[in-house]
Amino acid sequence: MALGGGALGLIAALAVLTLCFLVRWWRIERSRPPAAGARLLPADLLTGFVTNFFDTLGIGSFAPTTAIFKLRTRMPDENIPGTLNVGHTLPTVTQAFIFIALVTVDFVTLAGMIAAAVAGAWLGAGLVSRLPRRAVQFGMGVALLVAAALFLAANLEWMPAGGAAMGLEGGTLVFAIGANFLLGALMTLGIGLYAPCLILVSLLGLNPIAAFPVMMGSCAFLMPIGGLRFVRAGRYDLRAALGLALGGIPAVLFAALVVKALPIVWLRWLVVAVVLYAAALMLAAAMRRGRPVPASA
Q1: Using an 8 Å Cβ cutoff, are 66 and 276 in contact?
Q2: Dihedral of CA 261/263/265/270: which sign?
């Protein structure tokens, strides 16, 4: 398939950005003392494979990964947003390469929405990387509730059907760019961009297939930029992030190039239940930390 100049330019820019991300990530970690017990955990590799496999099919990876980390008590809650953004970067970049190449979307629409999401993530990551644990717990608890609601809407077929257009223009395009800026900022807190972006483009009349390069391209460009802010701040778990990345890349290739589609409604119902439980745990932890500690007798 011959690629247009716009698509080739985006893929080239993404390749350069990803290389810069990898080099900068390596240099930052190399300058730090070696972490104790740096061996990768098989459970993190499996989490990366499973969540990115279904992510490629449109489910999203942030909410399921957050739920798994919370249920495993894998890391301090305030480190979860950074670990998601850093660890899922390379699998998401792999998705973007595939879908930008395979699905032709109006270049102005695609590039504008991607740029807006990147700007939102850059600002959002700077804020989230400085938030205290309780604020992150509240934010992620709400994020998980939003994710569960989106999964529920998909299961009950409340999602808009979408139109046939492969691009936007005028005021509709301006609105879409502004909305994607907000989605990029919220993504740094753990609210996945895939489902909200799919709803957005469908409401605006785009063909739902157009959401795949838009949402995957947006995430692929914003995650290296937002992720580096978490890396610099040390607000993530290195081993878990590496596990997500190394387990996720082969899962993306397998899902996109071999499986391509699955009947996944039953899985969404399972995700709803698990995500709601994780949201309850996160909010309960935040409320416990907010209670005053009684004085000793």
Answers
A1: no
A2: negative
